[in-house]
Amino acid sequence: MKMVADALTCAVRMDSVHRTYGSGETAVRALNGVSIALRRGSFTAVMGPSGSGKSTFLHCAAGLDRPTSGRVLVGDTELTGMKEGALTVLRRERIGFVFQAYNLLDSLTVAQNIVLPLRLANRSFEPEFLAAVARSVGLDVPLDRRPSKLSGGQRQRVAIARALVTRPDVVFLDEPTGALDTRTARHVLGALRHAVDQWEQTALMVTHDPVAASYADSVVFLADGRIVDELPRSAPERIAARMAHLGEW
């Protein structure tokens, strides 16, 4: 992917990122010189076979793991070398996360789950804004309901709304539809696409599903810890065909 140097147009940048686990003969190189820039307002999917480095890629980009070498920036802030306390604050205030397992708190209502990041950051919000975020992801359940009373698709919409509510620099999604049936997954992906467009939100999604990847503006392919190809927004069939031939890179 072409590098975008201007922090005003670039939400996330990775420069020659390497991540190695272990040492000596047992060392595993999960990332091998990854460089990428995510334009603000873009929706990027990351795909690759098992062991290609997708999870490590996401964790390093999101500040959940530290590269062995190279640089990671969110906007104009370099994560590399930040102390853990400062990194925790940055993740809470400027990064959103959506996981396959939802990670909602059943002791809180839907509304309380959505605004939890704002509460943790001592930020105020208007009820109208909460309602707008809920509408943007197609959440049509009472906001005073508990997550345990919701379907899987509804829970994931709550999780996406929670990730969007702080208007973060970037939202990272790790297999967000992996636990959903096909029909529900399509509905959730449509809602995600709508929300990304409405809020001009930058999003990066790791997925194994070509259908999920087809909702993104571009699809980046990893193999052996390297970016080996990229497709502009494409049909699932074309994405699946490229995945099937990744070994030819």
Brief description of this entry?
It contains eight helices and ten strands.
Tell me the radius of gyration.
Answer: 18 Å
Terminal Cα separation, in Å?
A: 16 Å
Net shape:
globular
Mean pLDDT: 93
Q: What's the arrangement of strands in the largest beta sheet? A: 6-7-8-3-9-10
**Number of spatially distinct domains:** 1
Strand content: 25-35%
Which class of secondary structure composition applies to the elements? alpha/beta
Order of helices and strands: EEEHEEHEHHHEHEHEEH
Give a count of the beta strands, DSSP E runs of length 2 or more.
10
Under CATH at level 1, the class stands as Alpha Beta
Largest sheet: 6 strands, mixed
Please tell me the CATH architecture by its name: 3-Layer(aba) Sandwich
Q: Which residue ranges are poorly predicted, with pLDDT under 50 across at least 5 consecutive positions?
A: 1-5
CATH third-level topology = Rossmann fold
Described by its quaternary structure, the protein is single chain
What does this structure look like?
The chain has 249 residues and is α/β, with parallel strands linked by helices. The protein has one domain: Rossmann fold (3-Layer(aba) Sandwich). The chain is built from 8 helices and 10 strands. Strands 6-7-8-3-9-10 form a 6-stranded mixed β-sheet, sandwiched between helices. It has a 4-stranded antiparallel β-sheet with strand order 2-1-4-5, with helices on one face. A hairpin with a 6-residue loop joins strand 1 and strand 2 (28-39). The chain is globular and about 55 Å long. It starts with 9 loop residues before the first strand and ends in a 5-residue tail after the last helix.
